[in-house]
Amino acid sequence: MSLEQFKNRNIGTQNYVALDVGKPPKSGLCQFKQVVKRTFKGELFVGLWVTMKAMLKALFGGDMHTIQYPFEKLPISPRYRAIHDMLRLLESGNYRCIGCGLCEKICISNCISMDTRYDENQRKEVSEYTINFGRCIFCGYCAEVCPELAIVHGPRYENASEQRAGYSLFEDMLTPIDKLNLQQEYDGFGAVSPNADENIKKTPLAY
Ligand code: SF4
Ligand code: SF4
Fold it and tell me: pTM for this one?
């Protein structure tokens, strides 16, 4: 659509009411005069009455359009990309993260920092993992690229903190071990397969 067509498009004018608000004041004196005129014509009180009516309806008529945050919260979409969660393996409770570093490499804000080491069994483990949520733009690339579905976006969106360093630790994002049964699972690579219970005794590679 060209600009001209856009300007002339049919926007259904029958539902619009054109208000005659007069010419806009050009100088400071004209503005002052307009304020005085409107006030003493009672327009100020009309506005106050409209506000008062809305307030009375909200308080006594149950017509409330706001919520009492933080005591009440609006539901968020299941696909909302909020603060990250680090998941555990349901079977063992171990970290699902294998320390591959893909999330750190793909992060376009360069806010993931991690390090790995070998444990006593010469297996690689994550020794340090932080996300600087002051820089994170919640693009979701880290969750998309993770081959183990170890890092996902959870439903927590209140990440205010007095200390920058206080809300970026691996332990804060990790599913608490006593709440493992409440861990939300997502579809995708690394997710628990529907027949995991049948496969669990056979070989770990089967699920
Ligand atoms: S959501 Fe995006 S910006 Fe935030 S840590 Fe993941 S990749 Fe980086
Ligand atoms: S991509 Fe996943 S498995 Fe790899 S280091 Fe990041 S969180 Fe861990």
Answer: 0.64
Reading the block at residue 40, the tokens are 């003493």
Cβ–ligand 2 distance for 146 under 6 Å, the answer yes
Measured from the Cβ of residue 167, the count of other Cβ atoms closer than 10 Å reads 20
Whose tokens are 């995991």? That residue is 196
Range of the domain at 194: 84-206
Query: Is 75 within the bounds of a domain?
Result: no
Cα 173 to ligand 1 centroid, rounded to whole Å: 14
Mean pLDDT of 83-112: 91
Q: Whose CA is nearest to atom 7 of ligand 1?
A: 107
Query: What confidence tens digit (pLDDT) does each residue in 19-43 have?
Result: 777 788 899 999 998 888 888 877 7
Domains contained in the chain, number: 2
Ligand 1 within 6 A of 87 CB? no
